[in-house]
From TrEMBL:
It comes from Paractinoplanes brasiliensis. This is Protein kinase domain-containing protein.
Amino acid sequence: MTAVSYAPAPRTVSGRTLADVLREDGPLPVARVRAIGLRLLDALVASHHGNLHPGTVLLHDDGRVALLGPAAGGPAAGDLISLGATLFAASGGRPGPLRPVIEDLLTADNPELAGPARAALAAAGH
């Protein structure tokens, strides 16, 4: 009998991490930071990440945003704080109309703030 090992086929990933984008292109426009923030909040609501930072945020060439690394279920307050720090870094420290949302995220002590944070991000800049 021959043993056969099956492994998932490697998936081609087109895009760069947020860390690479910031290093190579510099800070992002506030509108792009806002869009990334909304997508990241959706991802965090779907699963607790536990290690969110620019190096674990994959920006696909087609505009999708993905989290690299572990997922453990439901957002934690620490994820929201990390999101605030990540968005602040993405804006180059100049978040403009996103500043109040980012400040709220940086002081989040309750994972239930994900919903209000999403609403505030959606409304910012409009």
